[in-house]
Amino acid sequence: MYLRATEEVPITLVDFDLVNPFYTLRPIKDTLENLGLKVIAWGKNTFMGLGEASSLLRSDMLWALHRKGNIVFDVGYGTYGAEIFNLLEDNAEGRLNIFGVVNICKPLTSTVTGIVKYVKEFGKINGIINNSHWGDKTDITIINEGIIIVSEASKILGVPVISTTVEKKLAEKIGPADFMGNPVWPLTLYMGNAYW
Amino acid sequence: MSNKKPVEGEKRAFLTGNETVAWAALAGGADIMYGYPITPQNQVMHTWSRIIPPYNRKFLQTEDEISAGFANCAGALAGKKSFTATAGPGNALMQEPQSMAEAMRIPAVFIIQQRGGPSSGTVIYSQQELTLTTYGGNGEGWRIVYSVCNHQEIYDYTIKAFNTAWTYRFPTYVMGDGYQAELREALTIYDPEERGIKMVEPQPMVGMPGKPGVDRPPVHLVNIYSLEEELYDVCIKYQMEFDRISGEITESEGKNTENPDVLVIGHGVVFRSIHEAVKEMMKDGLNVGYFRPVTVRPMDVKALRNAVKNAKKVLVAESSLGQLERQIKAYCYGLTTPISGYFLPGMGIVATDIEREVKALLKK
């Protein structure tokens, strides 16, 4: 399940955040492309002038599902951001794997009840990713707390926990699976280079 | 209001700056937010309206920022802890109600997430609302403005802003920027009372019970002056009060300000880079220091002048074209320390930028 970009199965990252289209991954687009990802996003040299007078949809964003390989959409914050999937061309019901990403260090998803309420607002989802962390203050205790709380919520929701995502240095300490057997996906963080 | 506390004890949180404002306002006992959408503060409104239902707080989206600003004043006049959030042209439109808040001593709280200019539609980061936020409006700038540099401060100072406003009855601001608004960062959220912070109870300034002049003194809140002498008297009185409280409310921080070869001055998010750069250069044995105003209005003039006087050279770094530097020079009138600027309007400033500029100054 852990995505790796290859020539046969490329990964395309689509900057599809219309809630806040200006504070996005634009500043690190080149970095990500140099890592082998295909990135559909506005860049410094491809955009000028509209400010907040418009939303910035590109046709290659709308048709992204026609691309080869795996497509990852970065949508706006909160459950309302996910409503943008309505705009995608060829978004047949059930064609997308939609995973709810949950962090117990966000107040609205800090409890089992909170996660259940939050994830239900997405509508149909295929799984939950336990992304519990406290930024640069994350430790193993927080990650383990997240595993317990998210697993409990997944049982109530009837959807599986797909993985536990962990910053790569901490991931090395945990190993390939967390203590409940969920695969650990190590993360390399790049957004710090985008200032926000 | 519901008795249920929005935050029990201390809780770790990983939030955007905008979300942090909303949670802090909730924990700080804000009764109502009046708002009008504008990037990059929209998420304050979105988060506030989403989290308040269990706590019986209110939100009103008005027809524009002028209305949001005046409604914010009206809420405070009615004895409610009210606040609004805006940015850029929204801040410009709100200057009239902000001026009224100065004139009528209304304890309204304003959250400003700075963005770029000159422009009406530029939504990106900048630090170009310092002048507007501290001295905008047709008045003398009787405002209390906290310039925050990280999310813990956004939380702490948003709570503090309500207490400052209701204690001193001057409009009070928490000023961030587009980066801080959108950045996600680790912080601890808490119930202020459980930390021993006594929250000041709001009191209505209008609509009190009893007959004015009989059961209680009449309320005479003036926003319009017909006579020059009348305005003069009010200005002198308010200026004296503002000067008197300044000593109680100014906040700043400094490092190695005794005799640095270069003193770096900056506020808000740029201070993060200054802090990191100075720490690294001090490790390398360079004699550098920093001064950071937390209240950019009123400025901690005494500490600033001491720091500047002690330094051989001063570098002011900011994401604007000298808005802070102009104020620093005015406050330091008469001192002979050379002051230069590193200005990147609209652009972020990182620690390596500061180190490069300081080292260039050291060589001169």
Describe this structure in words.
The complex is a heterodimer of chains A (196) and B (364). Chain A has 196 residues and is of the alpha/beta class. In chain A, 24% of the residues lie in helices and 16% in strands. Chain A contains 6 helices and 7 strands. The model of chain A has no long low-confidence stretch (mean pLDDT 85). By secondary structure, chain B is an alpha/beta fold. Chain B has a 7-stranded mixed β-sheet with strand order 3-2-4-5-7-6-12, sandwiched between helices. In chain B, strands 9-11-10-13-14 form a 5-stranded mixed β-sheet, with helices on both faces. A two-stranded antiparallel sheet of chain B has the order 1-8. Chain B starts with 9 loop residues before the first strand and ends with a helix. The model of chain B has no long low-confidence stretch (mean pLDDT 96). The chains are: A alpha/beta (196), B alpha/beta (364). Chains A and B meet through loops of A and strand 1, helix 2, helix 8 and strand 8 of B.
